[in-house]
């Protein structure tokens, strides 16, 4: 899967690349070529464009100056202006040698008619709010060019590379072109537009030790292979879904239905209710001993309510288990220190805060902390869901939609995951369930609008999500 870097990791990898014999100016030149290639694809013919490039003093600004030189010498745009925010980078000498004159910290009136603005002010090294004159120039980029599309070099100026957040002014980009590998901000942030990750010569082996990845079907596509012709319902696993106390049976009903739709051969729902959404679901009483004999995985928690049996059951059940909702809330004050089988916890931020005993601060670090301390896989749900394994592997999920912010979406994920846990390794099952869940949400939103999607709509679009990934 694609590795995802922090700013510090990117600096270290760049330094090792330079030590291996690829000079920094060559890396900068390669980066400039990759950005120009994106400009060619998106805005051809470039000789008809009016382009303004904002360049800072660091390597990001150096990239901008190299981009300007390539545009000036190869494409001769209708207009090309370079606005320098600070003392120029050494690359300015190459730009001047080509016969071009840059402007220091001012924007000529004719440049306001630009059709393309290239943001090369600030790169991945920013740790706080953008200072002056950068903050003012960021505001100019956002509002001073009404005809322009904005292309950010590496990431939008003002954005923290590790969090995707901004402490102050930040460029709102239509396109972002980053190099070697995505940074965390490219998955966690907003306002980046369409992101392109471009190689510039860094050996991929330098990223072998990076634990954080982007969740991609290449890691689990084999789970969706055609089923054996001789298979039967017993071949594809029996899920026990536990939840649905009085007044909340809909939640566990959706979990059971999702497990069926994800491919479980059999699903038994232990619930207090008597009415479930489909006759294919078998039932068992919620009171008394939960029947694990003959089952292959457990989904515990949707609609359950706080239940004192949960900590012991989660500790001692030998089956793979996904624990969600009230299952997690029941563990918050009595977390076992060992488990008899694989566990996947799927908290939303509120449930995560109860498990941690504090508010969520850094979503990636907090998910890794909980996974390490509980020895469970942790799925911290939200925009760009975080998946963390006790062994340190961590993935950011790229799929999902605001349309999924509706009651029951998490119950659907729990059922999908429980179905996959019947036959697949827990890490791969979790990656697959989260990705397909998010992709189904995107497909549902595209057809039904973000406003009109309800949780069970995700199951309607799950088959197409599977087809696209298989």
Explain what the structure shows.
The chain folds into two domains: 7-209, 3-Layer(aba) Sandwich (Rossmann fold); 217-469, Ribokinase (UDP-N-acetylmuramoyl-L-alanine:D-glutamate ligase, 3-Layer(aba) Sandwich), CATH 3.40.1190. 35% of the residues lie in helices and 15% in strands. It has helices spanning 7-19, 24-43, 59-74, 91-97, 134-143, 184-188, 249-261, 310-316, 326-331, 349-356, 363-374, 409-421, 426-448, 457-469, and strands at 50-55, 79-84, 103-104, 116-120, 149-153, 175-179, 194-198, 212-214, 238-242, 266-271, 282-285, 297-300, 321-323, 343-345, 377-380, 386-388, 394-396. A ten-stranded mixed β-sheet has the order 8-17-16-15-14-13-12-9-10-11. Helix 3 (59-74) runs parallel beside helix 4 (91-97), helix 7 (249-261) packs across helix 12 and helix 13 packs across helix 14 (457-469). The model has no long low-confidence stretch (mean pLDDT 95).
The chain-level structural class is alpha/beta
Within the CATH hierarchy, at the fold level, what is the topology of the largest domain? Answer: UDP-N-acetylmuramoyl-L-alanine:D-glutamate ligase
Q: Report strand %.
A: 15-25%
Amino-to-carboxy terminus distance: 16 Å
Enumerate how many helices there are, as a single number: 14
**Sequence of strands across the biggest β-sheet:** 8-17-16-15-14-13-12-9-10-11
| Sheet with most strands | 10 strands, mixed
Q: List low-pLDDT spans.
A: none
Number of domains: 2
CATH class of the largest domain: Alpha Beta
Assign an overall shape. elongated
> What Rg is obtained from the alpha carbons, in whole angstroms?
26 Å
The CATH level-2 architecture of the largest domain is identified as 3-Layer(aba) Sandwich
Would you identify the CATH H-level superfamily of the largest domain?
A: Ribokinase
């Amino acid at each position: 899967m694609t590795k995802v870097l922090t700013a510090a990791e990117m600096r270290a990898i760049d330094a090792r690349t330079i030590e291996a014999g690829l000079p920094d100016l060559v890396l900068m030149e390669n980066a400039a070529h990759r950005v120009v290639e994106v400009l060619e694809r998106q805005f051809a013919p470039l000789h008809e464009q009016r382009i303004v490039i904002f360049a800072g003093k660091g390597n990001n600004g150096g990239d901008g100056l190299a981009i300007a030189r390539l545009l000036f010498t190869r494409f001769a745009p209708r207009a090309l202006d370079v606005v320098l925010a600070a003392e120029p980078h050494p690359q300015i000498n190459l730009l001047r040698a080509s016969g071009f004159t840059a402007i220091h910290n001012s924007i000529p009136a004719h440049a306001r008619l630009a059709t393309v603005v290239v943001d090369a002010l600030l790169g991945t090294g920013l740790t706080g709010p953008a200072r002056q004159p950068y903050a003012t120039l960021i505001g100019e980029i956002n509002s001073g060019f009404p005809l322009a599309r904005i292309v950010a070099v590496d990431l939008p100026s003002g954005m923290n590379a590790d969090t995707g957040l901004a402490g102050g002014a930040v460029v709102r980009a239509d396109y972002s072109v980053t190099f070697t590998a995505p940074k965390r901000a490219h998955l966690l942030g907003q306002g980046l537009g369409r992101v392109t990750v471009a190689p510039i010569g860094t050996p991929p082996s330098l990223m072998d030790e990076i634990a954080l990845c982007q969740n991609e079907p290449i890691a689990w596509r084999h789970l969706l292979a055609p089923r054996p012709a001789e298979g039967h319902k017993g071949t594809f696993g029996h899920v026990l879904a536990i939840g649905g106390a009085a007044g909340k049976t809909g939640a566990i009903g959706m979990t059971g239905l999702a497990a069926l739709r994800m491919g479980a051969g059999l699903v038994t729902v232990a619930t207090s209710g008597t009415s479930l959404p489909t006759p294919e679901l078998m039932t068992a009483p919620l009171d008394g001993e939960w029947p694990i004999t003959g089952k292959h995985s457990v989904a515990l928690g949707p609609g359950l309510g706080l239940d004192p049996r949960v900590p012991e059951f989660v500790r001692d059940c030998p089956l793979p288990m996904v624990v969600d909702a009230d299952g997690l809330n029941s563990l918050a004050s009595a977390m076992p220190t060992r488990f008899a089988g694989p566990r996947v916890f799927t908290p939303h931020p509120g449930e995560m805060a109860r498990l941690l005993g504090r508010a969520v601060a850094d979503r990636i670090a907090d998910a890794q902390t909980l996974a390490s301390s509980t020895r469970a896989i942790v799925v911290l749900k939200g925009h760009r869901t975080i998946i963390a394994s006790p062994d340190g592997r961590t993935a950011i999920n790229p799929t999902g939609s605001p349309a999924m912010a509706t009651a029951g979406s998490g119950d659907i994920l729990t059922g999908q995951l429980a179905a996959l846990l019947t036959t697949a390794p827990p890490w791969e099952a979790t990656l697959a369930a989260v990705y397909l869940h998010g992709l189904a949400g995107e497909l549902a939103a595209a057809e039904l609008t973000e406003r009109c999607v309800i949780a069970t709509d995700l199951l309607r679009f799950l088959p197409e999500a599977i087809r696209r990934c298989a």
